[in-house]
Design brief:
This protein is mainly alpha-helical and about 180 residues long. It contains seven helices and no strands.
Length: about 180
């Protein structure tokens, strides 16, 4: 019976991740404006995925990330598969760098997520520019990446409360061992 609990827990957390992403997709496709037109809001799907991967990487497998972002590409009318492929690459990169970030502070985690997001955004813009896609706006893409980077600490703080207050940083480990 103890062997089934981790599978059930992974299944439950994968379902929770999927439902949260579906809710965010629904919010993104509803026709109302939360953000001013000149300033794009943060991509919470990316921020939540990055936080989840750094804190609980076993809970969201790579195929789930691929399916979620592929569906997002279709529903948000982006070039199909490009952002999904970049997010899969980013997810795998972060999954393999997670151990080195665990031993450092939150700033290292934030820097890793920021660097990966900026690299994915620049790769997206470069590919779209290379194939002469008509709506490539570097400034808009960078504003969205910047707002996602600024929202990352809030998403991470909310995730720590949702995950039961666990921390992946060295100071968090010390607090958990002391208390």
């Amino acid at each position: 019976m103890a062997e089934r609990t981790p599978f059930r827990f992974r299944l439950l957390s994968g379902t929770a991740y999927s439902c949260l992403m579906c809710l965010l997709l629904l919010i993104n496709i509803v026709p109302y404006d939360i953000w001013p037109r000149r300033f794009p809001g943060p991509d919470l799907m990316v921020a939540i995925t990055f936080v989840w991967l750094l804190h609980r990487p076993a809970q969201i497998p790579t195929p789930l990330v691929a399916v979620v972002f592929f569906v997002a590409d279709i529903l948000l009318m982006r070039p199909i598969g490009l952002w999904a492929a970049l997010m899969v690459l980013a997810a795998e990169f972060m999954r393999h760098r997670r151990r080195s970030v665990r031993e450092r502070t939150f700033v290292a985690e934030w820097a890793l997520a920021s660097g990966v997001l900026l690299a994915a955004t620049l790769a997206n813009v470069a590919v779209l520019s290379a194939v002469l896609f008509e709506s490539v706006l570097l400034d808009r893409a960078m504003f969205q990446a910047g707002s996602t980077i600024m929202a990352y600490p809030l998403v991470s703080m909310a995730a720590r409360h949702a995950f039961g207050g666990t921390s992946t940083t060295a100071t968090g480990k010390a607090r958990e061992e002391a208390g």
